[in-house]
Amino acid sequence: MHESFTPDEELVMLFLKKHAKSTAAEIARHSGLKGRGVLRRALDGLDAKGLLRHTDDRVERYYLVHTRWDAAGPC
């Protein structure tokens, strides 16, 4: 099955592939996403697709679960 991702979700995925266990602030700062709502929608979208997990720390850190998606793009 071919999943589609928003451009914002793709930016978050690319960042998290290189920088696992990052906070939302780190993701926003380095991915170029502006505004908490934009980042939150991207994180929620990836979570709904089962691709995103987070730690239970006071400051949550996000990471991707194993996917077939690589730097070349979605399968």
Q: Secondary-structure element order, as H and E?
A: HEHHEE
Q: Ranges with pLDDT <50 over ≥5 residues?
A: none
- The spatial strand order of the largest sheet comes to 1-3-2
- In round numbers, the mean pLDDT is 85
* Rg, Å, rounded: 11 Å
Characterize the biggest β-sheet.
3 strands, antiparallel
| Shape field | globular
Q: What is the CATH homology-level superfamily?
A: Winged helix-like DNA-binding domain superfamily/Winged helix DNA-binding domain
Q: How many domains make up the 3D coordinates? A: 1
Provide the CATH top-level class: Mainly Alpha
The first-to-last residue Cα distance is: 9 Å
Q: Please report which band the strand proportion falls in: under 5%, 5-15%, 15-25%, 25-35%, 35-45% or over 45%.
A: 5-15%
| Structural class category | alpha+beta
Secondary structure tally: strands:
3
**What is the third-level CATH name, the topology?**
Arc Repressor Mutant, subunit A
Query: Helical region count?
Result: 3
Helix content: 40-55%
Structure overview:
The chain contains three helices and three strands. It is an alpha+beta fold and 75 residues long. It has a single domain (7-64), classed as Arc Repressor Mutant, subunit A (Orthogonal Bundle), CATH 1.10.10.10. It has a three-stranded antiparallel β-sheet. β2 (52-54) and β3 (61-64) form a beta hairpin. It is globular.
